[in-house]
Recover the amino acids of this structure.
């Protein structure tokens, strides 16, 4: 084995780097799902908290079921995104092994769609309660 | 090389989406904290500022998450055709908006107290 056989430009090194890049991408997906989960949790719980407080102070209560529904939907979406991206990770892994990587867009379109729709629902809720 | 380019493009897209999500969370918290202040009988200055500020930040988060998709698809096509060209328009707009937002927040915090 010569020095260049496993040097930076070799096929073996490229393969390793592609797998590591695939793994980093999966972790980025997981991080995104965790962020969405956190957002959903905050939305659901904060609405509930404000409703409780309003009731204690005999003020007009917040419609907390709306925030609870948006929050739960965001948490559910984060689970879906984790699942879909994990399937994508294993497919990309097999493609790298075969040396034929196919770029996809489904999971990205799904995630941006969910985030934008969730954000618009949140905005509508804030406008309605503000 | 192409494989890693595509994977890096996905990660960059996710970072944009995450940035949008964080802004949505901050905007939501700002809006609801204004409601909390109102319930506690804090001066209505905070309340009147907190709601429009919060909604603007949430709207900004939606726009940022939304722009991530055309950016992703464009970069994806350009990586495939080996003609990747960086674009800084969205990045500059985001940084400028954040700078303005930080200044507004600073002034709001100084004035409203």
């Amino acid at each position: 084995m010569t020095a260049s056989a496993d040097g930076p430009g070799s096929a073996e090194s490229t393969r390793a780097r592609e797998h590591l890049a695939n793994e980093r991408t999966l972790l980025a997906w997981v991080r995104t799902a965790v962020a969405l989960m956190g957002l959903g949790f905050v939305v659901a719980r904060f609405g509930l908290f404000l409703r409780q407080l309003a009731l204690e102070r005999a003020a007009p209560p917040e419609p907390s079921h709306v925030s609870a529904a948006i929050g739960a939907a965001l948490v559910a979406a984060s689970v879906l995104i984790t699942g879909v991206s994990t399937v994508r990770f294993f497919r990309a892994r097999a493609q790298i092994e075969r040396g034929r990587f196919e770029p996809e867009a489904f999971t990205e379109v799904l995630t941006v769609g969910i985030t934008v729709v969730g954000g618009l629902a949140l905005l509508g809720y804030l406008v309605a309660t503000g | 090389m192409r494989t890693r380019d595509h994977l890096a493009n996905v990660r960059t897209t996710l970072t944009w989406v995450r940035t949008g999500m964080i802004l949505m969370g901050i905007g939501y918290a700002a809006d609801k904290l204004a409601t909390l202040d109102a319930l506690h009988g804090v001066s209505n200055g905070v309340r009147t500022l907190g709601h429009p500020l919060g909604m603007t930040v949430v709207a900004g988060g939606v726009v940022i998450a939304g722009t991530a998709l055309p950016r992703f698809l464009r970069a994806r096509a350009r990586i495939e055709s080996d003609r990747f060209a960086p674009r800084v328009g969205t990045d500059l707009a985001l940084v400028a908006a954040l700078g303005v937002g930080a200044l507004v927040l600073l002034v709001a915090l100084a004035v409203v107290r």
The first helix of chain B runs from residue 2 to 39. The helical segments of chain B are 2-39, 44-80, 89-112.
